[in-house]
Amino acid sequence: MRTLNRYILAELSKVFLLSLTALTGMMMIVGVVREAVDQGLPPGQLVRLIPYILPDALRIAVPVTLLLATTRVYSRMSGSNEVVAIKSLGIFPMAILWPTLILATLLSLGTVVLNDVAVSWGRSGVQRVVLEAVEEIAYGMLRAKRRYSGPDFDINVARVEGRRLIHPTLTLEARGNTPAITFTAEQAELRSDREENLLKIILWNGEVEVEGGISGHFPDVQQHEIPLRNASQAESASKPPSWLPLRVIPGEIARQRLEIERYEQELAARAAYQMLSGDFDDLVSREWDSRHRELAEKRSRLARLATEPYRRWSAGFSCLCFVFVGAPMAIWLRNREFLTSFFLCFAPILVVYYPALMYTVDASKGGRFPPVAVWAGNVILLVWGAYLLRKVFRY
Tens digits of per-residue pLDDT, 74-99? Predict the structure, then answer.
């Protein structure tokens, strides 16, 4: 029996590692190209993205390649009547499935870790690469399109000569009580200060116009500093729940609940004061609509925080669920062409499991379903696998 188990594991490992390498390589290329196009990264920065994109590629590739390896091994064994021979010797079919299920369980735990690393360390790393390359990105965009913008500013130039921006126009968007400001100059230069995390825009001999009709002229040098996070087209500084490591999510949930409780108490106290003072007009004012929206946003963040651990664990254990379906189906079909077995397994997974996962995750983040609902897709696969196992055991 040990010889049989070693044989199955050896065959499974060979196919799995080969297909994992090929699929991960393809996904890495796609991921690097996508980030390069989205963020406008120069070629010299692309290599730095590889370590950060690798966990994201692996977490997607591992379940699919494990299913491919499983159907390859068990299709060949069943098509060659090896499973029939094992049954004739009085060996229960589950004996040849245990090694694969144990391996799938271990890989599922590893995929949970990959999910955690990919969305926390990986995405933060990609953002860090983009922030450190913001000067090169800006110059590249200005040379190609004569324009570069961030969340709070916009730069337009006539042309770029080396590091000099010729006839630039810098527009700073209005923020709160600060009006919009427009600078026009003969020349300008961009300098990235990584120690202070600033992008410095240095302008020579120009004019400044403040929204509202105020204008002036500066004959010398005018320097404006923008935080690198605001100067980049990368993600915002505030991290969504999907970017947080699993270890910090429980603490974030506790803090968010406390924040909601305090805000609700504040709203209740304010409403009670307005009712007692007879200020009923304010109770139906737009200000209260804004407060209700803010409360809804806080509750939405709490729902997303609560859903995230369930999402990562359920996505990680898709490895085990895929194998639980793939192995018995490959044996039951008794087809040497493993691609037929693979597509017959993967097509329903693609049509049922992934849509169920996306729908339940979206509903759970929206507060319509409890977070545990994200396991619905896994449960469907387990029920399907149990049905197939019953067929294998009986026939």
Answer: 988 888 888 878 877 777 878 889 98
Mean pLDDT, all residues of the chain: 85
Give the residue from 342, 319, 338 showing the smallest Cα distance to 78: 338
Beta strands at 164-166 and 159-161: parallel, antiparallel or unpaired = antiparallel
Single-letter amino acid, residue 62: V
**Terminal-residue alpha carbon distance, the chain:** 22
Q: Name residue 170's beta-bridge partners.
A: 155, 183
Between these two residues, 317 and 199, which has the higher pLDDT value? 317
For the whole model, what pTM was predicted? Answer: 0.79
pLDDT of residue 235: 46
Percent with pLDDT over 90 in the chain? 36
Q: For the chain, state the CA radius of gyration.
A: 29
Q: Which residue has the tokens 């977490």?
A: 59
The span from the CA of 208 to the CA of 124, in Å, is 36
SS (H, E, C) the chain: CHHHHHHHHHHHHHHHHHHHHHHHHHHHHHHHHHHHHHHCCCHHHHHHHHHHHHHHHHHHHHHHHHHHHHHHHHHHHHHCCHHHHHHHCCCCCHHHHHHHHHHHHHHHHHHHHHHHHHHHHHHHHHHHHHHHCHHHHHHHHHHHHCEEECCCEEEECCEEECCEEECCEEEECCECCECCEEEEEEEEEEEEECCCCEEEEEEEEEEEEECCCEEEEEEEEEEEEEEHHHHCCCCCCCCCHHHCCHHHHHHHHHHHHHHHHHHHHHHHHHHHHHHHCCCHHHHCCHHHHHHHHHHHHHHHHHHHHHHHHHHHHHHHCHHHHHHHHHHHHHHHHCCCCHHHHHHHHHHHHHHHHHHHHHHHHHHHHCCCCCHHHHHHHHHHHHHHHHHHHHHHHHC
Q: What is the pLDDT of residues 292-326, one digit of tens each?
A: 888 999 999 999 999 999 999 999 999 999 999 99
Express as a percent the part of the chain with pLDDT over 70: 93
> Which residue, 311, 317, 312, is CA-closest to 101?
317
Residue type, 322: F
Beta bridge partners of 190: 201
Pairing of strands 147-149, 169-172: unpaired
**Domain ranges, ordered by start, for the chain:** 2-133+305-394, 151-231
